[in-house]
Amino acid sequence: MKILVAVKRVVDYNVKVRVKADGTGVDIANVKMSMNPFDEIAVEEAVRLKEKGVASEIVAVSCGVAQCQETLRTAMAIGADRGILVETGDELQPLAVAKLLKALVEQEKPALVILGKQAIDDDCNQTGQMLAALLGRPQGTFASKVEVEDGRVRVTREVDGGLETVSLATPAVVTTDLRLNEPRYVTLPNIMKAKKKPLAVLKPADLGVDVAPRLETLSVREPSGRKAGVKVADVAALVDKLKNEAKVI
Amino acid sequence: MSTYTAPMKDMQFVLHELAGLDAIARLPGYGDVSTELVDAVLEGAATFSGEVWGPLNKVGDQQGLKRHDDGRVTTPKGFVEAYAKFVESGWNGLRFDPAFGGQGLPKLVDTAVMEMWNASNMAFSMAPLLTQGAIEAVFLRGSDAQKQRYLHKMVSGEWTGTMNLTEPQAGSDLGLIRSKATPEGDHYRIQGQKIFISFGEHDLTDNIVHLVLARTPTAPEGVKGISLFLVPKFLVNDDGSLGERNDVRCVSIEHKMGIHASPTAVLAFGDGPGAIGYLIGEENRGLEYMFIMMNEARFGVGVQGLGVAELAYQQALAHAKDRVQGKDATAPKGPSVPIIRHPDVRRMLMSMKSRVEAMRALAYVVAAMFDQAHRASDDAERNAAHAGVDLLIPILKGWCTETGVEVASTGIQIHGGMGFIEETGAAQHLRDARITTIYEGTTGIQANDLIGRKVLRDGGRSMQALLSQIDAVCEQLEAGDDAQLHAIGARLREGSKSLADSVRWILATGMQDLNAVLAGAVPFLHLCGVVCGGWQMGRAALAAQRKLAAGDGDAAFYRAKVATARFFADQDLSRARGLAEATMHAGASTMALAEEQF
Question: Can you tell me the distance from the alpha carbon of B137 to that of B293, in angstroms, rounded to the nearest whole number?
Answer without folding.
Answer: 7
